[in-house]
Amino acid sequence: MRSWADAIVAAGAVRASHVPEESLGRTELSEVAGAELVEDTEVRIHPLDPGGVIAPPATASFLDGIQRWKVTYYDGAVPIVRAYVASAVRRRTGDRRLRVVGETTREFHAAAVAALRPGVRAALEASGVDLVDVPQEALGQPGPALEAARRAVENARVALEKDLAERHLASLGAEEWFVVDGVLSESARLAGHPRALGVIKSHGAQYFEGDALTRALTLPALHRTSVFRPRGRAHHEVYSWYLRLWPWEGNDLLFGLLRVEARAHPATVTAASGVSGWLARERAPVSTPDARWDRLLYPIHDVETYLRARAPRDLLPSPASRLPKAAS
Amino acid sequence: MIQKRAPEPVGRVVATELKPATPHQFHFWTATETAIGIGAIVRVEGSGTGEEGRVVFGVVTDGFAYSDLATPLHDVVGADGDPARAADSPTVRQEIRLWTAAVLRQEPEEPLQPVPLGRVFVATDPDVARALRMETYLQGATPTAIPVGLYTSGGLEAPVYLDADFLHGPEAAHLNISGVSGLATKTSAVEFLLSSIFQHFPAHKGRIAAVCFNVKGPDLCFLDQPGSLDDADRRRYERLGVAPQPFRRVRYYAPFKADGVNLNTLRTHPDLVGAVEPLVWGLQEVLDFAEVLLNRDDIDAKADAFIDFLADRVLNREFDDGFGGTHRVQTFADLDALFRAIFDGLELAGRSDMWRTHHIATMRKVRNRLSNISTRCKGLVTDDGPSNDLPWGAFEDRAVYVVDLANVDPLGQDLVFARVVSQLREHLERRDLGVEAVVVFVDELNKYAPADGPDTYVRKMLLDISERGRYLGLVLFGAEQFRSQVHRRVVGNAGTIVYGRMDYDELATPGYQVLSPATKIKLATLPIGELMVRHPHFTQPIFVRFPRPAVLRGRDGVERFPPAADLPFADAVVRQLLRLDRRIRPNAVHDLIVDRAPDDVRRALAATRRARPEDPLAFFRRALGARVAAAEPAGRAREAVPPLNPLSDEPY
Known about the structure:
Largest sheet of chain B: 10 strands, mixed
Structural class of chain A: alpha/beta
CATH architecture of the largest domain in chain B: 3-Layer(aba) Sandwich
Oligomer: heterodimer
Distance between the termini of chain B: 89 Å
CATH superfamily of the largest domain in chain B: P-loop containing nucleotide triphosphate hydrolases
Strand content of chain B: 15-25%
Number of helices of chain B: 22
Number of strands of chain A: 14
Strand order of the largest sheet of chain A: 7-6-5-4-8-9-14-13
C-alpha cells in the first residue's frame, strides 16, 4: 500500500528538509520587489558553461565583512552597546592562495543618546569613544531596542564594506575580478564596474511570482535563470540572475541557491553563463563546517574566517556561568 | 652607521586548553613554506606584560599539518567523488604547520614558567650556543669545548660542542654510539670525533691517547692515510675549527697468523706493513687473565686457587716439583713440562690424586684451558717465545693505538681486550702510562657487554670502566647496532649518547619511549653523516652533521693498499728483519735459517724484535745459536702444548 508521502511525490511534490534559520534569509529585507527580464521573454533555465570549461580568473579578490556587538551597560532600560565591524579583501593569484590586500575595522559604542540620563550621556561623550546614535523611537521593551542597536551596527558594517570595496576597485588589476559578499547596488561604482560581482546568499526579496518564481526556486543544480533587472530597494541599477550550486532536492528550496549581481550592461547577459560556470567551480573546496556552506563560496568563507580570527575576543559569547553576580 | 636588519619571526607560539604551553613544551605555527623541521632549534621571545626580556629556546620534536577541512567526506563532496578533480579547486584550503617544541633553556631560569605566547625566531649561532648551554665551556679561562658536528637548519650551520669535562671526566664520561651497520656512520663518527678531540683536548687536562680495537674488516686499518673529502666536508671542517688531516701518530698492533711470522691483519701492503707491530703474548700475560679463559662452568674455587698458585709460586721462580725436578716456568712449554713432571711423578710414586692440596682433576682442567688458548690463539699466544706488547708506560700524546683483532678467535679477542684495558687501568691508576687520559674504542659492544647472557670477565670489566673509569681518565667509546642489547649500566653510564640511523624495530623498544614519533622517524631515515646527540648540557637530543673523517676508509684502503699475500716462512722472517734494518740481505737470512726449526727461528726473531739492536742480523744470528743437527734435541719431545685430549677421563 502506498503511503500518502509516496502519493504526493508521485503527484509532483519533491521531498525536502526545511531548515528555517538558514532558509529564510534576512527577514527585514523581505519585500516583493519585482523584476524586469533582460534576457528571454520569460524566466527560463539555462545550463552553465558546458562542462564548466571556463576557468576562474587568474586573479580575483573577495570581500566580506563581519559585525560583533554586545550590550555592555544599561542606563535604566536603555542599552549601551559596544560594537566591532570589520571588512577585508583577500586576493587570490596563481598559487591559489588568498592573501589580505585590504582591511578596515571600526570599534564604536551605540546607544539612544537622547534617552540617556545626563550624567551617563556626559560621561560617554567626554570619553572620546566613537559613539553612534540609535534612533530613539525604538525605545521601550528590550527587544525592539536591541533590534535597533543591531541595525545600527549592521549599517556601520555595510558602510565599512562599501568604503573598502570602492577603495579596492581603484586598485583592481586589469584582468582581476572582484567578488563581493552581498549586493552591488549599494554602490554606484561597484554597480557599474565590468568585473565586479555581488553574491547574495539570503533570499528575502521576491522578484518573481507564480510559475516564474517556482521556476527560479526549483532551479536544477548547475543551472541559472534568465538575467533580470531587480526592482525595489536597489539604489543603483544592476543585472541579476539565480544560480544553483548544489541540488536542492532532499534539502530545501534555497539550498545551494545564489543570486548574482553584475553591472547593468548587455555584456553581462552574454557573460552570465560563463561567469556562472566559474562561480560553480568555487563550490570546491566546500565551506564546511559553516552551516551556510551550500551557498558560501570558500574564498568568502576564508575572508570571514580571517576577520573572525582578528576580532576582539571579549565580543564573543561568554562561556562563563550566567549565575547572578553576588557582589553586584 | 649600518643598521642591522631585525630578524623576522618565523612563527608564533599558540596555546589552547588542550595543547597548553608548559615550562617544558610549547607549540607554534609557521607559514606553510618554512625552513623549520624536526630537530630545528628556535628562540621564543616573550612580549606580553611581564614577559619582556624572557627568552626560551626549544627544539622541534613534532610537526602537524592540517587544513580547515571538517571531515574527509567534504573533500569528496567538493571533488564530486573524483580524486582527479580534487586538486582543481580554484582556492587552496587554509593549512597550518603546527610544531611541537621541547624547551632547551629558559632565560631567566627562575622562576620557571610556561613558555610565553610570543614570537618564534630561527636560532642563530649565538642562540644555539646559549640554547645548549655551551657558553659555559666555550668561554672562560679554560675552555673545554670539543666540536662534535654542525647543527644545520634553514641554511644555518652552527658548531655544536661537547664539554671535555663531561666526555672525558671527571664530571661525566664515556660515549655510546648506536646505528645500523653499513652506513659508515658509527666508525666514521668516532674517527672524526677522535680527530676533533686530539685537536681540541684542553691543554690543562694533559695528554690523551686512544686505543681502538679493530674487530671487523679493515675499518680502522688506515687511520694514518688521507681520505677523500669534498668541498662541503672541507667547509664543515673549517666551520668546526678542525683541521682535515689523518692521524699523525698511529701505532698498529696485530697478532701473527698461526705460522708465527705473517701478520694477521689486512694492513699488510708492503708500503704500510712497516707500521704494524706484532702483538705476541706469553704465559705471563695470559696467566694474569686466566679468568677470561674460563667460562662460568669452569669457575670454581679450586681452579681459581690453582691458577693463583701458579702465578704466585711458580711463574718466573725456581720451583721444586716435589719429585726431584726443578723448574723455572716462563713459557707455556715450561709450564707443560711442569705438568708432565707432576703427573708422571704422581703416577710413578703411586700416590693419591692430590698434589700440594690440588686435585689432579683440577690441574688437568687448568692445563687444558691454558693449552686451549695457545692452540686457538696461535699467533697471539706464543708457546715459548718472548712477548711483544703495547708500549705500556710510553704512550704518546695524541697517538692512536689500533689493536687489530678482526681475524682473531673470539676467545683471543676477549683475552686481548681484558688485558689491554686492565693494563690501561693499572697504569692510569699509577699515573705512569705516559698520558693522562685514554679513549678506548670498542665496536660491537653488544657482543662484549650484552644485556643478557653470561656474566663474563669482559663484561664485568666494561661495567667497571663505565662506572669508575671517569675518575682515572679511562674513557669508553662504545659502538653497537642495537643499544637495547647492551648492558643497561654500560650505556646508562655513558654521558654522551650518539645515534646514527636506527632500525625501526630497535626504536620500538622501551629505551626510546622518550622520543617523539617524528624524532623516531627522523632517526630511522637519517642520512649518512647526520647524528642525534645527547649530552649532559643538552636538555634535549640535538641533530648534528659531521664531515667525513679525513682518513682513508677501510674499504677504500684495501683497494688502494691491497693486502699482501702470505709469504713463505723464510720470506716472512726476512720481511720482519728488514723492518728493523733495510740493509739486511735476504739471502743472508735464508742461509741462517735454512734447516732450522721454525720455533727456534720464531724465538730468535722475537728476541731480536724486542731488543731492537743496532745490528739486527748479528743479534738474530746470536739468538738463533749455533747450527745443530737435524735430530731433535734430547729432552724436548714436544715443542708445543698439546691440545685438549678428547678422550681424557677428567671429570670436566
